[in-house]
Design a protein that fits this description.
- It contains ten helices and five strands, in the order αβαβαααβαβαααβα.
- By secondary structure, it is of the alpha/beta class.
- The chain has a single domain, classed as Rossmann fold.
- A five-stranded parallel beta sheet has the order 2-3-1-4-5, sandwiched between helices.
- The chain is globular.
Length: 192
């Protein structure tokens, strides 16, 4: 039995992607309520900011993410996360990775789990996304200019491409309860 076959039999990995404020975190929260473990790539960047004792300003998270990619390769976060995912697959049939942001990360995940890997994009319009981030109160969120800089940076990593090529898509240009229902329905179909 090959390594890929063994991993396929162990479980499946889903990586959720989407532009900032699209609803990736809310999707992950709904899926986590089903007992699915969630690992957040954004949490890895936030942890690095704290490790370096940097002030949590809107631009610092993107700067640190870009610095990590420049120093260690575009796939650095995916490589660092993959072993933790494998450990969870031993006891879970599905593991969710929240916040895949680029083609290099997708390449690592697909190479690691092959047919046991799927991507899901959460899509929302730019105006809807900006309105949402103004209300969520995270330290990495700033004004409209900071929002547009962040969009451009993440598009530069290939985020727009992986959204377009995702295996699954959930539209989040809707109210919160409808979106949560769509997430729940997706999970029930995926789990079946």
């Amino acid at each position: 039995m090959s390594v890929g076959q063994r991993r396929t039999n162990m479980g499946r990995v889903v990586a959720v992607c989407g532009m900032p404020g699209s609803g990736k975190g809310e999707f992950a929260a709904v899926i986590a309520q089903q007992g699915v473990p969630v690992l957040s790539m954004g949490d890895m960047v936030r942890a690095e900011v704290r490790r370096q004792a940097l002030e949590e300003t809107p631009g610092i998270f993107g700067e640190i993410a870009a610095q990590l990619r420049a120093e260690h390769g575009e796939d650095v976060l995916a490589v660092r996360l993959a072993d933790a995912v494998d450990a969870l697959l031993v006891e879970h049939s599905i593991v969710l990775i929240e916040g895949m942001r680029g083609t290099a990360e997708r390449t690592v995940f697909h190479g690691r789990w092959s047919d046991a890997f799927a991507s899901l994009a959460v899509d929302a319009s730019q105006d809807v996304r900006f309105m949402r981030i103004q209300h969520r109160g995270r330290s990495e969120d700033g004004d409209r200019d900071a929002f547009e800089v962040r969009d451009a940076r993440e598009i530069g990593w290939g985020l727009d491409q992986i959204i377009k090529e995702a295996d699954h898509l959930i539209d989040n240009n809707q109210d919160l309860e409808s979106f949560r229902a769509a997430c729940q329905n997706w999970y029930l179909d995926f789990e079946a």
